[in-house]
Amino acid sequence: MIEARLQLARRDFTLDVALTLPGRGVTALFGPSGCGKTTCLRAIAGLERATGRVALGDAVWQDDDRRVFVPTHRRPLGYVIQESALFAHLDVQGNLAYGRKRAGAVAQRLALEPVIELLGIGALMKRRVGTLSGGERQRVAIARALATAPEMLLMDEPLAALDAPRKAEILPYLERLQRELALPILYVTHALDEVARLADHLVLLESGRVRAAGPLAELMARTDLPALSGRAGGGAPDEAGVVIDARVLERDEAYGLVRIGFTGGELWVGEGPNTALGARVRARVLARDVSLARVRPQESSIVNVLPAVVEQVQADRSTALLQLGLAHLGGTRLLARITRRSCEALALKPGDEVFAQVKGVALM
User: Fold this and answer.
1) Class assignment of domain 2-230?
2) pTM over 0.90
3) What fold characterizes domain 239-363?
């Protein structure tokens, strides 16, 4: 478990957060530019001298009440920033060796081969930094951070400096980190697609304070968070949606489809990169891809129709965002964005039973 209670006052900005985060998996610090994501991350690392307390499990890195402050170089963490910050005069192997040497005896006792394999950089070891692509450099930077045998990995918008092809190149490696590393990763981003693809836990920051925090699926399904729902000047409306953790139940080779199951229902989706029978997958359903009907549609091109109950309705001048429960007890939730006119024509309100027509599902 990670505990961070931090306050930092500047002339035009104040950070005031109290966080209790999982000790494993990816926690995304999400929010618009200037909300305090990077400041919070740097304060946890000890690079910004905030007041308060920081602890990783039983290890206390900062406790101002007890006058404890462990300097950054003595905190067992890895730090990856937007630019790879590799040493241009060294090859890849030299960069990794430098990281291990600086980390001391603990890191040098650990085998480096699993890190090299995890990030797919075995063929790059003798290459100079200047010959690497942007995506390759970031993979090496992550490997160098892991070579120090950290107990926590901090990543500050590691994809922000990459173009779309390089970003697509590195995302699968970040997903492997999420699945295979038994350490917490704090991941700063303002890109909702990265959050949906990588995060297990989400912290939404607004103006230096925690607006909401919790498991990703719970927060993504809420209608009252503008940065996630696209309302009131928050995130783009076409990004509002939910993330579903599911398992592959059936494959239809003839049509290139797979059937996935989750708490509350099943969906047919297009094949993805890891859709073997029994495989765990993550799917994203955007609110704009969900329409509603009072009665079950007949002879429709939309394959996925799920019984649901309206739980919340948030309307603005032209649209309505509805939260839908797919099972009465502990089921998955969906979001549906429809016009306010349609919402009023159907007289939709909390407690109504409807049929959710899911027009599009993306396997992450």
Assistant:
1) alpha beta
2) no
3) OB fold (Dihydrolipoamide Acetyltransferase, E2P) (2.40.50)
